[in-house]
Amino acid sequence: MRIKSSKLFEEVVVTVLIAIMTILASSAAFAFPVRRAFVGCRYPSISKATRARCAVNCKPRHRFYHSSTTLLVKNDANDAANNTDNEEERKAYLAVGSNMGDTYQNIANALSSLQSNGSIKLLQTSFLRTTAPMYVTDQPNFLNGAVQVETSLPPFELLSAIKQVENDLGRDLSGNSQRYGPRPVDFDILLYDGYDVTTSEGTAAETIGENDLQPNALVMHQPSEKLIIPHPRMQEREFVLAPMMDLEMGGDGNEITHPVLNKSMKELLMMLIKNNAKNSNNDDGEEEYPPAHRVLPLPRGRMLVFNETIIQGILNVTPDSFSDGGKFSKSVEDALAQALQMEKDGAGIIDIGGESTRPGAEAVGIDEELRRVLPIIERIREESDIPISIDTRNARVAQAAIEAGADIVNDVSGGTHDPEMLASVASMGVPMILMHMRGNPKTMQALTNYTKNDGVLSGVLMELMARSKAAEAAGIPRWLQVLDPGIGFAKDVDGNLSLIKGAGVIRANCGNMPFLFGPSRKGFIGKVTGETDPAERDFGTIAACLISIENKEEIRDACNILRVHNVKAVKQAVLTYEAIQKAKME
Questions:
Q1: What is the reported pLDDT for 4?
Q2: Extended beta strands in 67-127, E state
Q3: Could you write out the DSSP letters of every residue in 152-164?
Q4: pLDDT of residue 60
Q5: CB of 377 closer than 8 Å to CB of 401
Q6: How high is the mean pLDDT of the chain?
Q7: Residue 115 has what pLDDT?
Q8: Chain centroid to CA 121
Q9: 451 vs 530, higher pLDDT
Q10: Most confident by average pLDDT, 292-296, 338-342, 459-463
């Protein structure tokens, strides 16, 4: 196998800092055993003058205190890392990856197993990316992400729990496997909260001020136990920094700061990307740092890759569709032909709906909805493996559709219509599209009044994120969520235009979640153009779609899905638009 060495950082900064700490500690603690841990934001008894001098000379985000004689040298690293004053919950960030078998299912199983004994709780996830392998390059691509957990386990016990899960899922931990080689699942502890440490003699490290227990502040170097915190190579890995930036954007708004390099995850990622751009081609002319692509995991080991805008083709099997007038509701074979044609025209998803949600529409019984959608899902599955989304507000329909071969649940109510929907989707482990809507199809157009202090952009943003949080709390992680601002649902003409114009603002303030936009043939286009026939609104649809995916905010990794009737027209327009956007001005 061919081995690559990274050209970036090579652990220089971290290694030098740790080496300096090691020299200082060794000179002061020659009588102690060599096993020792360095714990950030903690220090032994030192004079007030020394404390003041250190506080002035160190940067304020994370302060590392040492006297002239010692640098928090502990007699036993395991005692230092594992004994705390209480069972207080602390937070940690873990990297997770897989490149063997069903990679997403491996990750999902690993996280489920990790939480099984109650001492570790998953708080939030990043998005997932497929990435080329580093170091050992002739192996399958990896699926990588990062998670924030809350745990009562000290670092070494957390490491033991992680290793047990890896072992249970088939990773070879005997020491005979190839380093950086293929693995069914791989965890790394990236960052860990600072905390008070107690030695085996019962002496607690002192603390001062409010900054001593800062998040992610633990600094530990214990090579003999294969545990170094922060992870010594995280700053050279895009597949770690990009997911960590996801968590930084999607959390409480605070930066996640590297306690040694004193930089946020975004800062480290931008530095890495800039450096990689300077070394983008190797001597063979091949791209040495291929980009990581965000993905949406699907059943049966498949994935939607957001390396381009994904087109979702609409297939309504209702007799009262506003656009096609029930054209595909009478014959399964006609509906199949339409689905296969949309796939040929460039659709990446087929969206099947058995209940009209046009303004003023009456609700449809669940049994009738099932009668409409299940035969076409089953028939498509006999001919194609194209991803299928089920457009439904009902948990029973969603579950039956997934069992019949659908892959994604698309709920126009964002999980508010059926109280069982979120739990049902979580139990199936499939992606969910959460749309913003007020009321229901019959009442929604009477609910378009967004106040001056709660305009359509801020109102949709707040309400949509509340649905995302509810889904996450129900067990649908962020890497399985897609958000939809609900064009045409509980918005008037001006509201729809504002949402489309402000699409980038909404995306930026939703932590760069994947977004679906569905302006296709909607009534606001008819009002703007004067076109009364929905089937003749494709030109206006194209304009709305292109503005929806415009990236004025230059958001990195923006992920878009466009839900449309005329797949071929919109696909060609998007391909041309994106090619122009990527072209160089020479």
A1: 42
A2: 90-98, 120-125
A3: SS-HHHHHHHHHH
A4: 31
A5: yes
A6: 81
A7: 95
A8: 17
A9: 530
A10: 338-342
Residue with tokens 């990274």: 6
CA torsion 576-577-581-585 (nearest 10°) is: 60
Higher pLDDT among residues 585 and 529, named by residue? 529
Higher pLDDT among residues 244 and 209, named by residue: 244
Q: Which two tokens stand for residue 556?
A: 């990195």
371 annotated active-site: no
- Residue 268: enclosing H or E segment and its boundaries? helix 265-278
SS3 state at 248: helix
Task: Report, in this order, helix, strand and coil percent for the chain, each rounded to 5.
Answer: 40, 15, 45
Residue in 563, 571, 582, 584 annotated catalytic = 563
Do 92 and 153 contact (CB within 8 A), yes or no? no
The strand pair at 432-435 and 220-222 is best described as unpaired
> Residues 6 or more apart from 197 whose CB is under 8 A from it?
37, 39, 42, 72, 74, 80, 81, 83, 84, 204, 205
Residue type for 412, please? V
What HEC string does 232-244 produce? Answer: CCHHHCHHHHHHH
Residue 162 Cα distances to 111, 115, 175, 188, 452, angstroms = 10, 10, 16, 8, 50
Does residue 400 have a pLDDT over 90? yes
441, 353 Cβ separation under 8 angstroms = no
Digit-coded pLDDT (tens) for 482-510? 999 999 999 999 999 999 999 989 988 89
pLDDT at 362 exceeding the cut of 60: yes
Phi-psi region of 131 (alpha: psi -120 to 50; beta: other; left: phi over 0): beta
Instruction: Tell me if 26 sits within 8 A of 184, measured CB to CB.
Output: no
Contact 169, 185 (CB under 8 A): yes
- Which residue, 33, 40, 44, is CA-closest to 77? 33
* Residue 105, amino acid: Q
Tell me if the bond preceding 230 is cis, omega within 30° of 0.
yes
Please give the residue that has the higher pLDDT: either 89 or 432.
432
Q: By the 8 A CB rule, do 476 and 411 touch? A: no
- From CA 137, how far away is CA 3, in angstroms rounded? 7
Name the phi and psi angles at 222, rounded to 5.
-140, 75
Whether 563 is catalytic is yes
| Predicted local confidence at residue 371, as pLDDT | 96
Sign of the Cα pseudo-torsion (216, 218, 219, 220, in order): negative
**Which positions ≥6 away from 133 have C-beta within 8 Å?**
99, 139, 140, 141, 142, 180
- Cross-strand pairs, 470: none
Mean pLDDT, rounded, for 60-70: 27
Per annotation, catalytic residue among 36, 393, 438, 522: 522
305 CA to centre of own chain:
13
Q: Are 565 and 350 in contact (CB under 8 A)?
A: no
Whether residue 116 contacts residue 468, with contact meaning beta carbons closer than 8 Å, is answered with no
